[in-house]
Amino acid sequence: MKLVVGLGNVGTKYHLTRHNIGFLILDELADRRNLTFKHEPKLEALVTSEMIEGRKVIYAKPTTYVNLSGNALTKLMNYYKIAIEDVIVIYDDINLDTGIIRIRETNGHGGHNGVKSIIEHLKTKNFKRIRVGIGLDDSMPLDHYVLGNFSKKDIETLKPTVEKALDAIELFSKDVYFKDIMTKHNSSN
């Protein structure tokens, strides 16, 4: 069993914000595969799943808001009895230019409060992740920037990035050796 978690904030107010790139990628995946997310209050997440090559893959969007993502991830892992090596988290990264993708097996939180929450709850920074660059605009406060909507130019820039993320999720779901996934996508930026 695999668990793919996209970080974001629930509600239409946040739908196209930079902080919601994890949600947006999972929404695109769900649209393409005709999957429907269902609210699971006890897991503090919107959840859907499918079978890929005989393996159940669960997709989740925490409803805890980004900064408390560790709460939902812990509940999901415990409920489905999923080991940390079978989890991948997708989130925005201001330290990467818009459209750049970095896939890692371990890393710090890089100032991302949602990832910080996950590290605190799991008591490890060793979990797989897809970091999607959203850039940074120093002319405005950070919270206004990450909670601001993507521009039309950003959306165009992100289209190939979303494709790369979806491919990485597919390969992860099929249990492809993770370093091969990293090599394929980290070197193609």
H/E order of the elements? EHEEEHEEHEHHH
Count of the separate structural domains: 1
Mean pLDDT: 95
Report the major sheet: 7 strands, mixed
Indicate the proportion of strand residues. 15-25%
Across the major sheet, the strand order is 2-3-4-1-5-7-6
Secondary structure: helix percent: 25-40%
Quick one: how many beta strands? 7
Structural class: alpha/beta
CATH class term: Alpha Beta
CATH names the topology as: Rossmann fold
Tags for this entry?
single chain; Rossmann fold; alpha/beta; 189 residues; 38% helix; 6 helices; 22% strand; seven-stranded mixed β-sheet
Question: What this model shows, in words?
Answer:
The protein is an alpha/beta fold. The protein has one domain: Rossmann fold, CATH 3.40.50. The protein has 6 helices and 7 strands. The protein has helices at 21-33, 69-80, 113-122, 142-146, 152-173, 178-186, and strands at 2-6, 38-40, 45-52, 55-62, 87-93, 101-104, 128-133. The protein has a 7-stranded mixed beta sheet, with helices on both faces. β2 (38-40) and β3 (45-52) form a beta hairpin. α2 crosses α3 and α5 (152-173) packs antiparallel against α6 (178-186). The longest helix has 22 residues, at 152-173. It is globular and about 45 Å long.
Quick recap:
This protein is an alpha/beta fold and 189 residues long.
Question: What's the SSE blueprint?
Answer:
Elements lengths: L1 E5 L14 H13 L4 E3 L4 E8 L2 E8 L6 H12 L6 E7 L7 E4 L8 H10 L5 E6 L8 H5 L5 H22 L4 H9 L3
Parallel strand pairs: 1-4, 1-5, 5-7
Antiparallel strand pairs: 2-3, 3-4, 6-7
Helix pairs in contact: 2-3, 5-6
